[in-house]
Amino acid sequence: MPTAPPQSLNKLVTIRNMSAPSNDDKHLPPASLRPHDAPLAGSESNAEENLSPDAPSASKLSRPTVGRLSLYYRELNRLHTSGKTHLNSTQLGSLVDVSPAVVRRDLSMLGTIGQRGIGYSITKVIEKIGLVMGSGVHWQVVLIGVGSLGNALLRYRGFEQLGFRLVAAFDQDPTKVGTAIGGVIVHDTELMAARLAELQPELAILAVPADQAATVAATLKSCGISGILNFAPTTLRLPGSCAVVNVDLASELQRLAFSVQHRS
Ligand SMILES: NC(=O)c1ccc[n+]([C@@H]2O[C@H](COP(=O)([O-])OP(=O)(O)OC[C@H]3O[C@@H](n4cnc5c(N)ncnc54)[C@H](O)[C@@H]3O)[C@@H](O)[C@H]2O)c1
């Protein structure tokens, strides 16, 4: 069963359980994290740090903003671990290569305003971003396809820190079934529906060959999975209640190569 979130996160859980995107939105993050650019002006004020008691309105966040929040979150956690308590928008901006004005605008959308001369409380901003990004919630994740990529993902310890717990893996290869990788047991894909009904995970990582991806994704959706992180180089069509985010490293490399070739 998914771990019950702390009381303060109930609102987020409500958002998370709301209907998933339509087919047209399948490459976007879940509905709770989707666009509608309506940035508010923000500034580091002289007033006490202003933290809204309400959960941030995730529906107001644009996709680029969500991407930047994720980067802020990573950098702030690193600084927190190193013992730093405050930083200002210029410092945070330089860490993720955006202007201080953009940082202030992004954080003001979470109801967080820095204090002049002191800046932002790192723990409070981490808490706010975690709340809106779902990182404060314990998401249960399964992985399908324990090949080269699946193996590496199962061994990666960084997911847990952000609240994503890999609870089971599945593969159709009998030589892999019953093994444990990174502490996660690999089950037979044949038993996937039964195991998913038991574990009730919300998210799935798909690391099967491209020609298998659609079938496996349809099974995941029929088993109640709300979101799929798809590594297979194919476009999944899942009308209805399952969000899909595609990760294509080859395309990213192409984009990088293009940038390198065309930089002035
Ligand atoms: N997006 C990326 O950046 C990226 C990078 C590397 C690989 N990939 C893609 O990720 C996928 C996995 O890559 P890989 O290198 O790990 O491949 P792989 O061949 O090493 O592993 C695939 C695994 O999936 C299992 N499998 C096949 N059909 C299955 C099914 N129906 N149900 C359950 N398991 C099944 C196989 O037994 C195997 O263990 C591929 O689609 C590949 O193109 C994506």
Automatic annotation (TrEMBL):
DNA-binding region boundaries: 71-110
Location relative to the cell: Cytoplasm
Biological process per Gene Ontology, one example term: response to redox state
Positions that bind NAD(+): 145-150
UniProt keyword annotations, A-Z: Cytoplasm, DNA-binding, NAD, Repressor, Transcription, Transcription regulation
SUPFAM superfamilies the record matches: NAD(P)-binding Rossmann-fold domains (SSF51735), Winged helix' DNA-binding domain (SSF46785)
Record region (Disordered): 15-63
Domain CoA-binding: 134-235
InterPro entries in UniProt: CoA-bd, NAD(P)-bd_dom_sf, Rex_DNA-bd_C_dom, Tscrpt_rep_Rex, WH-like_DNA-bd_sf, WH_DNA-bd_sf
Pfam family, one: CoA_binding
Main location: cytoplasm
GO molecular function terms attached to this record: DNA binding; DNA-binding transcription factor activity
One GO term describing the cellular component: cytoplasm
Origin: domain of life: Bacteria
PANTHER family, A to Z: REDOX-SENSING TRANSCRIPTIONAL REPRESSOR REX, REDOX-SENSING TRANSCRIPTIONAL REPRESSOR REX 1
Biological function: Modulates transcription in response to changes in cellular NADH/NAD(+) redox state.
NCBIfam families reported in the protein's UniProt record: PRK05472.1-3, PRK05472.2-3, PRK05472.2-4, PRK05472.2-5
Family statement: Belongs to the transcriptional regulatory Rex family.
Assembly behavior: Homodimer.
Record protein name field: Redox-sensing transcriptional repressor Rex
Upper taxonomic lineage: Bacteria, Pseudomonadati, Planctomycetota, Planctomycetia, Pirellulales
Gene from which the chain derives: rex
